[in-house]
Amino acid sequence: MKKHNFSAGPCILPEEVLKKASEAVIDFNNDNLSLIEISHRSQPFVDVIEKARSLALELLGLENKGYKALFLQGGASMQFLMVAYNLLNKKAAYLNTGTWSDKAIKEAKLFGELVEVASSKDKNFSYIPKTYEIPTDVDYFHCTSNNTIYGTQMKSFPETSVPMICDMSSDIFSRQMDFSKFDLIYAGAQKNMGPAGTTLVVIKEDILGKVERQIPSMLNYQVFLDKESMFNTPPVFAVYTSMLTLEWLKDLGGIEFIEKVNEKKSALLYSEIDRNPLFKGVAAIEDRSNMNATFTLADKNLQTKFDKMWQEANINGLSGHRSVGGYRASMYNALPLYSVQALVDVMQELERIS
Ligand code: PLP
């Protein structure tokens, strides 16, 4: 039986996607050739990347609005520097809500002046700062929509006249919002899309061409836009699997549908964390993430017992990140509600026998 996979990433993907992806590794398109042994310039693969790019825009409601989707390499971490390389002329504003924002800030500092508009470092990033001002003379504002490690999520986004850039690696395609508020969105594939190896970048073309520096081709968004995301050999397997996941999501009913499922899953788990006296939530209640729930045991002496119980219940990937400790249940799009129920059952059983 497949495990209840709460891993934070790489993480669970829909079973039918895994099946189709693995079949394509043996025989793609019934052509007696593997997906990973055909040319990326062949029509069947060009069709795949075009479909993945258009599905991404369609699901985000960004078709015909001046946006293009790219599938790049280097992980979301590469975007920390690529964003700054392409967009930071003099000064940029960053909201610091966790390790990933911190890393984005570190890279951007190599390219210009940084204004950290607010930070939740004072409480180990367990909340989202709400009051801050974004200077109007910055080249852009950068934020992280979901903090995978600490289990916090931005529930609203500031109004600003400057371009808004968002790292949505761990909650893209999971909830409805007005994505046209953002001028550039990036997300590593390995949470809600596919295997590690590609990063989706959705970019409003008119924000480019404003920096004075020379940009190396492999780090230049415009080069990839001009080449329809095929400046060099793309990570074909990661792009194909992402396309399958986006198709799966569209067939289910898109973000509107999956958001409801995600709300049910997180409501089920958070209500147990709050009800069960053996557990405590880590993140501020109003900022809790629907994707990554962080919690601890009220009594650390129960840890060995609890760990044994969830592992025996076929649950995987529940240990918290080393910087937070405790537990983290990641409930990405592909995790079924019954997996969350399986975890809640274990939590209730621990209470019963303790
Ligand atoms: N940003 C966020 C919000 C993440 O959760 C992660 C990884 O978990 C990253 C960036 C880094 O992604 P990558 O490993 O693809 O560079």
UniProtKB/TrEMBL annotation:
Cofactor note: Binds 1 pyridoxal phosphate per subunit.
Keywords: Amino-acid biosynthesis, Aminotransferase, Cytoplasm, Pyridoxal phosphate, Pyridoxine biosynthesis, Serine biosynthesis, Transferase
Pfam families to which the protein is assigned, alphabetical: Aminotran_5
Entry GO MF terms: O-phospho-L-serine:2-oxoglutarate aminotransferase activity; pyridoxal phosphate binding
Residues noted as binding L-glutamate in the record, renumbered to the chain: 41
Residues of the signal peptide: none
Record-linked PROSITE patterns: AA_TRANSFER_CLASS_5
Metabolic or biological pathway, per its Swiss-Prot or TrEMBL entry: Amino-acid biosynthesis; L-serine biosynthesis; L-serine from 3-phospho-D-glycerate: step 2/3; Cofactor biosynthesis; pyridoxine 5'-phosphate biosynthesis; pyridoxine 5'-phosphate from D-erythrose 4-phosphate: step 3/5
Modified residues (N6-(pyridoxal phosphate)lysine): 191
Record has Transcription as a keyword: no
RNA-binding listed as a keyword: no
GO biological-process terms attached to the record: L-serine biosynthetic process; pyridoxine biosynthetic process
Cofactor(s) required for function per UniProt: pyridoxal 5'-phosphate
List of residues binding pyridoxal 5'-phosphate: 76-77, 100, 148, 167, 190, 232-233
Residue span, Aminotransferase class V domain: 5-342
Compartment(s) where it occurs, according to its Swiss-Prot or TrEMBL record: Cytoplasm
Reaction it catalyzes: 4-(phosphooxy)-L-threonine + 2-oxoglutarate = (R)-3-hydroxy-2-oxo-4-phosphooxybutanoate + L-glutamate; O-phospho-L-serine + 2-oxoglutarate = 3-phosphooxypyruvate + L-glutamate
Entry EC number(s): 2.6.1.52
GO CC terms: cytoplasm
Family according to the record: Belongs to the class-V pyridoxal-phosphate-dependent aminotransferase family. SerC subfamily.
NCBIfam families: PRK05355.1 (NF003764)
Subunit architecture: Homodimer.
Function, as annotated: Catalyzes the reversible conversion of 3-phosphohydroxypyruvate to phosphoserine and of 3-hydroxy-2-oxo-4-phosphonooxybutanoate to phosphohydroxythreonine.
Protein name: Phosphoserine aminotransferase
Lineage of producing organism: Bacteria, Pseudomonadati, Bacteroidota, Flavobacteriia, Flavobacteriales
